[in-house]
Amino acid sequence: MKSLKSASLSDKLHIIDIEASFLRALPSFDIVGLASTTIKESVSRVKSSLSLLGDFAFPALRIIINLSPSDVKKDGSHFDLPIALLILLQKEKFDSEFFVFGELGLDGSVKSTAELFSILLFLSTKVKSAKVLVPKDIALKAAMIPNLDVFSISNLAEAREFFRNDEFKNECKVQATHPLFQNVIEINGKKFVPNTKFELDFKEIKGQERAKRACLIAASGMHNILFEGSPGCGKSMSAKRLAYILPPQSLDEILLASAYESLNSNDADFSALRAFRSPHHTSTRSSIFGGGSARAKIGELGLANGGVLFFDEFPHFGKQILESLREPLEDNKINISRVNSKVSYETKFIFVAAQNPCPCGNAFSKTALCRCTQKEIDKYQSSVSKALLDRIDVYVAMSDVNASDQPSMSSKEMQSMVLRAFEAQIMRGQSELNGKLSDADIAKFCLLDDEAKGILDKAVSSYNLSQRGINKTLKVARSIADLEGSQTIKKAHILESLSYRMKA
């Protein structure tokens, strides 16, 4: 019995062992192991491709191809090439440690598939090192993926020669490195890729120093933030610039972001800039959370993983959408269940929301008159439940723009401050940034001095804080302390953290 490796991406990545058995019986060709119709159709493509090899005679045996594990559904025409190779090399010894991918044309050519780049990206996050054989038309792009030794061929005849001839095998190796991975910084033995381009700059925002300080804190620990203020005061400008000052991504985070983006049928590339997603308030629930009638597709929450999810005009989003946000914000993942698939996506993003203080937007204005009745204001503000607001770490009430306002810190300066806070968290041994710490990690890393503890105890009753509110206060205070270079959380850090709590 012969075997090769491939992979399937039905609900999550599964490494598939492709086994071939040749029996003395009536000639037949069967594929077993929960193979989809696409895979079963490979019988015709494989036979056609093999018939073009003049020195090969299709064996008059019963051929059974097994895709293991047999209890996992498999889909994709990229199984064509390994199936054909197992038949072609049935009497020969070959290196079975290769992952082999490729769809066969009727003329024996080997082609890429729409899903193949996603599979390779997910494979690179699952294995430390893997040798892969892929079609030539995706080889250069695949070679940019770390953890993979990429070899390429263009047709079935070359694929056979690849496993027969070591010299030809070496010629097929693709040597390429994405320039992004040459610009890395190392912290505590881990490699990270910082963003170096600032197309949108905080220096373009005049005034709003409190909002900029809040953005700095939010970026340092990946904390959720809510901006409230009159139209034109800079809420959206601040949100759109937040992605540029976020902490650097690890190599695994870049790979996962590219993999998620490719699942959205986009031509994904590697980027040092974290994701920024801003769905419109008229977007459907499925487009935001993911879904579909048959397969569970990725939505805006999954695509925002590791970056920013921005909801402008926060109260105008549908009630069902807003209430469904609570679990992903709390658990940092979203589970999508459909009849044919169940899939889970990480949602470790900064949730950024912006809203007016009232329907007309002038409630905070010192120059414009608010035309809203108290009933209209209450109805507008009640669109967002207190349970959802309790998941917001930082709240900022933004003032009107004044003619005397001047620009201050640039995004580059703010990013350098975030980087110092980020380094402190990594050196402390945290596996997650401050905003995503678990309850156990809060007790371990959010250490207060006696004065700070006394302030927090008084604030619990004064602010009517829930346990979640207490934890969020501690996590924000931890980020403030990291920005100040303090090992422990002090009184000033707790007081500033409390100042960003939304009053009931």
Quick structural overview:
This protein is of the alpha/beta class and 504 residues long.
Overview of the structural elements:
The chain has 504 residues and is an alpha/beta fold. The protein folds into 3 domains: 2-177, Ribosomal Protein S5, domain 2 (2-Layer Sandwich); 187-424, 3-Layer(aba) Sandwich (Rossmann fold), CATH 3.40.50.300; 437-504, Helicase, Ruva Protein, domain 3 (Orthogonal Bundle), CATH 1.10.8. The protein contains 21 helices and 19 strands. It has a 5-stranded parallel beta sheet with strand order 14-15-18-12-19. A 4-stranded mixed beta sheet has the order 1-2-4-3. β6 and β7 form a beta hairpin. The N and C termini lie far apart (69 Å). The mean pLDDT is 92.
How large, in whole angstroms, is the Cα Rg?
27 Å
Write the CATH fold name of the largest domain: Rossmann fold
* CATH architecture name of the largest domain: 3-Layer(aba) Sandwich
Task: Please identify which CATH superfamily of the largest domain we are dealing with.
Answer: P-loop containing nucleotide triphosphate hydrolases
Strand residue percentage: 15-25%
Number-wise, the strands total: 19
Q: In percent, how helical is the residue content?
A: 25-40%
Order of adjacent strands in the largest pleated sheet: 14-15-18-12-19
Low-confidence stretches: none
The description of the largest β-sheet is: 5 strands, parallel
The DSSP helix count reads 21
- Number of domain units: 3
